[in-house]
Structure formats: C-alpha cells, structure tokens
Amino acid sequence: MIRMLLIGCFYQTIELEHALADIERSGIDRRHILAVGMDQSGQPAPEALQSDAIEMGAGWATAFAVIGVAAGFGLAWGPIVWGLIGTAAGFGTGWCIHRFRHRGGARSGRAASPPEVTVIVQCPSDKSDAVRSVMYRCGALSVGTNRGP
Amino acid sequence: MTNTLPQRRYPMTRMSLLGLTYTSVPRPAMVAWWSAAFPGFGHFILNQYARGVLLTLTEVVINKLSGLNEAIVYTFCGRFADATAAVDENLAFGYAAIYLFAIWDSYRSSKSQGRLRALSRTEPQPIRRMLVHPLEVQYIERKKPQTALFYSILFPGLGQLFNHRFCLAFYLMFLWWSFIWTSHALSACLELLYGSVSRSTAMLSAHWLMFMPSVIGGAAYHAYRGTNEQNKLFREEQRAYLEKTYGRTEIAIFTESG
Fold first, then answer.
1. Which of B19, B42, B134, B250 has the most CB atoms lying inside 10 A of its own CB?
2. A93 to chain B nearest CA, in Å?
3. Contacts for B44-51 with beta carbons within 8 Å, 24 or more apart?
4. What CATH number does residue A128 fall under?
C-alpha cells in the first residue's frame, strides 16, 4: 500500500477542528496528522499596542460629532445635520491620521490574509480522496497531494 | 473542580456567566479619550465593567443636575453668559474632580494592564473555550469585527450582545432608549426630513442629545475592539490545542537512509 501525503492550508476557524475530527473518524490515526500554526512576517506580539484605522476613525468621529451637535444648536442647519457632518469629517480625519502614521509599515496592499494553519495527513492511497474532500468541505483554502516516500 | 487548580499570580482570561473577561492592552491615549467622551467608557474597554457602569450612571445623574451639557452647547454657540448661568456651582467642582480622575485612572490602568498581561505570558495558561452555565452558554468564536461595528451603529448595545457580553449590552441599550426618548432625536430627524429645520431643532432636548454621540461612538469602539480581542484569544487557544493534539507526529516525509 502506497502511503500518500495530503497537505491542506486553512484559516483558524471552528471548521478546521471539524475537519481534523472527521479525518480521525475516517480511520486515520492521530499520529499521522500534523497541524502547524503559521506566523506571518512582521506580525506584532499579542501585547503590542495596536489600534487600526477604524478605531482611530471612531475616536475622532465621536469628538467631531459632539462638537457638531453642540455648535449645531446655534447654526442654520441644526444639531442633527451638523452632528452627522462632524461624524463624517471626524472619521475621515482619524482614518487619514492613522494611514499617515503607518504609511510604509504594515502594508495595506499585502496579499489577502495568508493561511494560518497547515495540516499534513499521511494516509493510505485508498483513503486520500475521502480526506481531500473532508478538507475542502471544511474550508481548506488549498490542498496538495504527494505520492509519498 | 476549578478550586483544585493552582491559582496563577497573573491570570489573563476568565470565562463566566457574563462572558469572557480578560486583561486588555489598548492604547492608553485612546482609553483616556473614551473616558473624556463619557466617563466609564474607558473602563469598559479595560474590562472593568462594574466601575464603568457606576461611572456612567454618575455621569448621567450629575451632568443632568449640574446642567453641564447645556453649558457646553451654549459655549459652542458663543453664548458664554448663558453657559455660566446654566452650571450649578455646587456640583461643578465634584463633577470636574470625578471626570478628570476617570480619565487619569483609565489611562494609568491601561498601562498597568499591559504590564500584567506581559507577565501572564511568562506562565503559560490555558484559555477556556466554552462554558455551559445553568443560565447561559458562553464560548469564544471567531467573528468579523465589522459586524460588531455595524450593529453598534444601528443600535448601541447590539455589538456587545454579538460579543456575548449580554449585561453590558442591555445596559447600553437601556441608556440609548432613554436618550432617544428624552432627546426626541428620532422625531426631530423626521421633522428635519419632512418639515422645517427650525422646528426640528426646537423639538430637541440639547441636554439629552449631547450624550448620544459619545454613547454610540464608545459602544461601537468597544464592540469592534472586543471582537478583535476575542478573535485573538480564539486563535491563541486553538493554536495551543493544535500544538498539543496534532503537534507530535510520526509522519515520515523523507525516507531515512541509514
């Protein structure tokens, strides 16, 4: 019997755990499954201070909205319109400040989020189709097959 | 059963009936700003919910009694004499003291929590995935933070409900209902669309309307950030599980040759 290698790329979701459970249920021993979490280059540490453009936008939008509402009571268009204008202007300001500060850092143009886990399964060739279809059904981004050693 | 586990000096997360509570590492300046927008909201971001709720209630009551929001509106409209007359001088000093303390305390706590969390990294600890409680089923899941933001803007509190923080969710919804009710914001919006601007402005209660931007902004920020934090904890927990369960393997990729 030829032993094959199946390699699947996944995001970290609950479906991934379904995939691994289904592969085990199909008769593959746990010792023949390997799952490796992948790190991205330049990924900040979990403790690193972070705020993204939306967070900055929300902060500034609130500040400008408060001013817009307060000043709007004395202006022709009233507090609601000025509050909304303030919200939009504030969000734009916060968004731009964040983008300006982080330009050249973590690129926004980077390829859409890369896979987070690689799963390698060693299985007899008659089971490879079943394992592959489990992987695809449970959200694998891509699956590769190797005829084994 | 949990009593038999050794107590860690620096626990990082705790799952309970009320949802997932964790030490948080937000930017101190951001936390200080949310405290300034609405005292208590900075503490919500730091997962200090009890004192956050008490601070927001203090803010609503004392602001109402002292007439501060009216004074802010007069100030921004250039009517400084009216602003001075609107404030109750008996309450102004205490209000300012509590307001400034809330800003400073949340700024300081944000830094402390960052240090505590860094220390909890030195003692590896499991993150609880799920809790079945007689009243609730609580669990960590991976979700889109934009969804939390969207529902918070639709109605503040829904983003927290999305994040399984149901008590805070209903507290924020209660605040928002009372502000809609007392400020007449929605009927003023309709008047603005179908009637005249001056009648719409006359309908509004300046005092109650002034609370609303901070509540909706703070709730949206808290929900968005909360989803992101829970996603990180979900990934961390899952990676530890995968490492433990599928990390030791007998797969031979290369044939051994002697």
1. B42
2. 15
3. B44/B168, B44/B218, B44/B222, B45/B106, B45/B110, B45/B221, B45/B222, B45/B225, B46/B106, B46/B109, B46/B110, B46/B113, B47/B21, B47/B22, B47/B23, B48/B109, B49/B18, B49/B21, B49/B165, B49/B167, B49/B168
4. 3.30.70.260
Q: What pLDDT is recorded for position A103?
A: 73
> How many angstroms separate the CA atoms of B15 and B224, rounded?
19
- In a domain, residue A15? The reply is yes
- How does pLDDT run along chain B (258 residues), one tens digit per residue? 444 556 788 899 999 999 999 998 888 999 999 999 999 999 999 999 999 999 999 999 999 999 999 999 999 999 999 999 999 989 989 999 999 999 999 999 999 999 999 898 888 888 999 999 999 999 999 999 999 999 999 999 999 999 999 999 999 999 999 999 999 999 999 999 998 899 999 999 999 999 999 999 999 999 999 999 999 999 999 999 999 999 887 877 776 654
pLDDT for the residue B4: 52
Mutation target for B interface from A14, A73, A97: give the one with most B CBs within 10 A.
A73
Interface contact B197-A73, CB threshold 8 A? no
Residue A129 maps to a domain: yes
Question: Which residue range forms the structural domain that includes residue A139?
Answer: 3-38+114-146
Position A107 in a domain: no
Query: Collapsing DSSP states into helix, strand and coil, what is residue A59?
Result: helix
Tokens linked to B43: 């503490």
> What are the φ and ψ backbone dihedral angles of A113, each rounded to 5 degrees?
-40, 125
Give the pLDDT confidence score for residue B24 in this predicted structure: 86
pLDDT of residue B1: 44
What's the maximum distance between 2 C-alpha atoms anywhere in chain B?
A: 94
Residue A109 falls within a domain, yes or no? no
The answer to whether the beta carbons of residues B28 and B107 sit under 8 Å apart is: yes
SS3 B98: helix
- B217, A119: Cβ pair inside 8 Å? no
